[in-house]
Amino acid sequence: MKISIVTISFNQADFLERAILSIVNQNYKDLEYIIIDPGSTDSSRDIIEKYKLHFSKIIFKLDAGAADGLNNGFKYASGDIFGFLNSDDVLLPDCLNKVDKFFQENPSIDIVSGHSRIIDSSDQVIRNSYSDIFSLIAYAYGVNLLMQPSTFFRASCYYKVNGFNPNNLSNWDGELFVDIALNSGKFSLINEFLSCYRLHALSITSSKKIDDKIKKYRNYIFRKIMKRNKQVFDIPIRVFFRILKYLYTPKSLYERITKGAIYGRS
Asked: Across all residues in the chain, what is the average pLDDT?
C-alpha cells in the first residue's frame, strides 16, 4: 500500500531537517514524499536540496496559503493513503508501518488518527495529546480533537471532497476532516503515539494572533455542521460534550489538569 506524505516548508529551517529525517527514516517500503516551499527566505531550500534524492516531487511555487499549497502537493500524489506533516513536526519511528497495517486490516475505514507528543523547540516533551473518537456534533461544539500529524486518510475520500478549502487560513485540516465526515467517511483510532507536534514561539497554535480567525472558524464550522447559528441553549450542550470527552478519555483530563492547555503555549 503506497503512502503519500506532503510537507509544506516555509521559513522553518530550524526544524525542517528533523521533519524530513523523521519521514525518510521510517523505513517504509512504499513511500512517496512530496515537499512544497512557496518562497522561504531562510536556509530551508538549502536543506531541501540536501535531501533532494529522498523526495518524489519538489515544488517551488507560490500559493495562497497552506491549504492551497497542500492541494498543490497532493495533485502529484499517487498513493493509496495520504498524510501531511508540517515542517516543524515529526513522525515517530515505525509510524507508517502501523498506519499501513491498520488500513490493511480495516478496509472500511477512511480516516484514522493516533495520538501525539507535544514537544518544544528543543524536542523536549511538554505533554501528551490524545485524539478523540471523531464526532461531527462534538466537533461542532469545539470539544473534539484529531491530532493532525497523526491522522491519515484514504486518497479516495480526499478526492471526494475536492481536498482542502483554500479559503481556510486557520483550520484547514479540521475542515477537511469535517468535509470527509459529511461525505459519510468512516473514522477510527489507533491507540498509539504516531507523531510529535511542536509548539514554539512562531508556531500557529501557540500564537494569540489568530484568536479572531479561530473564533470565526468555530462559528463557521458550527453552521456548516448544524445548519444554524449558535444559540444560548448551546452553552450547556457544549459543557455536556466536554464532560463526555473526558469520560471517554480520562488521560486527556489528566494532561489538562496537570500540564495545562495546549493552546496558548510557546
From this structure: 94
In whole angstroms, give the CA distance from residue 89 to residue 120.
Answer: 10
User: What cell does 164 get?
Assistant: 482542502
Query: Could you tell me the three cell numbers for 197?
Result: 507536534
- Give residue 100's pLDDT: 98
Instruction: Give the pLDDT confidence of 152-167 residue by residue, as tens digits.
Output: 999 999 999 999 999 9
262 with 129: CB under 8 angstroms? yes
Compute the distance between CA of residue 47 and CA of residue 100 in angstroms, rounded to an integer. Answer: 28
Distance separating alpha carbons of residues 44 and 69, to the nearest angstrom:
16
Domain boundaries, the chain: 3-259
Paired with 59 in beta bridges are 36
Q: Which amino acid is at 123?
A: D
By three-state DSSP, how is residue 5 classified? strand
- Which three-class secondary structure state does DSSP give residue 21? helix
Q: Are 88 and 148 in contact (CB under 8 A)?
A: no
Rounded to 5 degrees, φ, ψ at 204 are -60, -45
d(CA 196, CA 129): 9
Specify the DSSP element, H or E, that contains 96: helix 95-105
pTM of the model: 0.94
All three cell numbers of 35: 515537499
- Burial class (CB within 10 angstroms; exposed 0-12, middle 13-18, buried 19+) of 230: middle
Rounded to whole angstroms, what are the CA distances from 109 to 105, 154, 190?
A: 9, 8, 12
SS3 for 260? coil
Homologous superfamily of 3-259 in CATH?
Spore Coat Polysaccharide Biosynthesis Protein SpsA; Chain A (3.90.550.10)
110 or 262, greater pLDDT: 110
Q: Report the C-alpha dihedral over residues 72, 129, 213, 223, rounded to 10 degrees.
A: 90
